[in-house]
Design goal:
Elements lengths: L3 E7 L2 E6 L2 E6 L3 H13 L2 E5 L9 H12 L3 E3 L4 H20 L10 H21 L5 E5 L6 H8 L4 E5 L7 H4 L5 H8 L4 E4 L2 H15 L2 E3 L2 E4 L2 E7 L6 H13 L6 H11 L4 E8 L6 H14 L7 E8 L6 H21 L7 E5 L4 H10 L2 E4 L8 H8 L7 E4 L3
Parallel strand pairs: 1-4, 1-6, 4-5, 6-7, 7-8, 8-11, 12-13, 12-15, 13-14, 15-16
Antiparallel strand pairs: 2-3, 9-10, 10-11
The structure holds adenosine-5'-diphosphate-glucose (ADQ).
């Protein structure tokens, strides 16, 4: 029977060594959250990096990790420190991520990192080719693997390949800046179906294909090497029922059932306190600093709200080896400290700042208890947090402040 293979840079689990055995913890992030249910229900194989450098693993450990991951139909692609530095932290996150999010002043192109990007994409393609048979479907995800579709198609033209980009595809005026633009477009065009979150990204991609590769395009179909490649819009959703049911259960159980919920309820009892929620990976595209500055301005100009309103800011550590992210972490810590130092009273801290991942139950505690959810990215592919907040509004209350960007 034909099978489905999901391919992404990261597997949805993080492997760690603890007391001589291997520990597997779920990762946070839009791609992992969105695809987990698809994988669990769809009997697919998921190929990706397991979150640990292979420089720290001997052959026995690798075999053990392969076996353990295999139980959930996960297949690891092992990457060493050099590959991670150049392909992941380097090329993917210092060049492609900022460029595709319109932060051109931050993006850096480095020839050595580009070569690693090609090699690691080939490594992922080789892993897929080890498992794939004619008629199988391969579904490749995101900006780290833009070359992978063509690398697979070159060797096995009889597999159907889907490619989905989770981040914006920038306008032609931005994309043309990129030194290896032809190579990236040709890499993606190895897929038979190419998906984007919004019609704008689809339009930008088609315009780049026409103007950079001079290919014939009929509406949303690109003609390339005798193949018809379909480009379309598939705005990513969430597992709505999972969040709705969790919210219903959360409201049913006693108000003090978790420490976090107890603290939230205490705050809400005092002065009929209100909560504003903000959840993101700590990333400069998400507008975290701007949001804090807006909150500071609100408190400056509205003293009547002091003691009554609190910003709960949940920032998940992300790419903390990249300089821009280190700077953002420092600035965020400073601004949170300044706001709390400036306004806090004995009973009130204006910003509750969590720099860590949270388990699902606590995430639901926050969604359910917040009166306002403030999602204000400077640029974002889609944003699932906004959708998750809406899914937990089972009493049709609450306010979502969502940036049009
Ligand atoms: P992300 O940039 O990771 O995704 P987003 O879409 O907001 O952003 O998804 C974040 C996910 O992580 C949500 O499901 C959320 O519940 C979870 N999460 C956030 N903070 C958490 C925490 N502290 N603990 C646990 N879980 C947490 C990328 C793109 C987005 C695009 C998605 C999906 O950048 O634009 O929407 O992929 O395609």
């Amino acid at each position: 029977m034909p099978k489905n293979i999901i391919v992404s840079n990261r597997l949805p689990v993080q492997v760690e060594s603890k007391n001589g055995s291997w520990l597997f913890t779920p990762t946070s992030g839009g791609l992992a959250t969105g695809l987990k249910t698809v994988h669990e229900e769809g009997e697919s194989l998921w190929i990706g990096w397991p979150g640990v450098s292979s420089d720290n693993l001997d052959n026995e450990s690798k075999n053990q990790i392969c076996q353990d991951l295999g139980k959930n139909r996960y297949c690891p692609v092992f990457l060493d420190d050099k590959e991670l530095d150049n392909f992941y932290f380097g090329f993917s996150n210092k060049c492609l991520w900022p460029l595709f999010h319109y932060f051109i002043e931050i993006h850096q192109f480095d020839m050595k990192q580009w070569e690693f990007y090609i090699d690691v994409n080939q490594k992922f393609a080789d892993e897929v080719l080890r498992f794939v048979n004619d008629g199988d479907k391969v579904w490749i995800h995101d900006y780290q693997l833009l070359l992978c579709p063509q690398m697979i198609k070159d060797i096995n033209p009889n597999v159907t390949i889907g490619f989905f980009l989770h981040i914006p595809f920038p306008s032609f005026e931005i994309f043309r800046i990129f030194a290896k633009r032809e190579e990236l477009l040709t890499g993606i065009l190895g897929a038979d179906l190419i998906g984007f979150h919004t019609y704008d990204y689809e339009r930008h991609f088609i315009s780049s294909v026409k103007r950079i590769l001079n290919l014939e395009v009929n509406f949303n179909i690109v003609l390339h090497n005798g193949r018809e490649i379909v480009v379309n819009t598939f705005p990513m959703g969430i597992d709505f029922k999972k969040f709705e049911i969790a919210a219903k259960n959360n409201l049913r159980i006693s108000p003090g059932s978790s420490e976090l919920k107890r603290q939230i309820n205490t705050h809400k009892l005092v002065n009929e306190g209100k909560l504003i929620l903000s959840i993101d990976r700590l990333d400069y595209t998400k507008g975290v600093l701007n949001r804090l500055l807006a909150f500071e301005r609100f408190l400056d100009t509205n003293p009547g709200y002091h003691d009554k309103i609190r910003l709960v800011m949940l920032a998940v550590p992300s790419r903390s080896k990249v300089a821009q992210y280190k700077i953002l972490k420092r600035q965020t810590d400073e601004v949170v400290g300044r706001i709390n130092g400036k306004f806090a009273s004995v009973n009130w801290t204006p910003v509750w700042y969590y720099y860590r991942s949270m388990n699902f139950e606590n995430l639901i505690d926050l969604y359910v208890s917040s009166d306002v959810c403030m999602i204000t990215p400077l640029r974002d592919g889609m944003n699932l947090v906004a959708k998750e907040y809406l899914a937990t509004r089972i009493n049709n209350d609450g306010v979502l402040i969502l940036s049009e960007l």
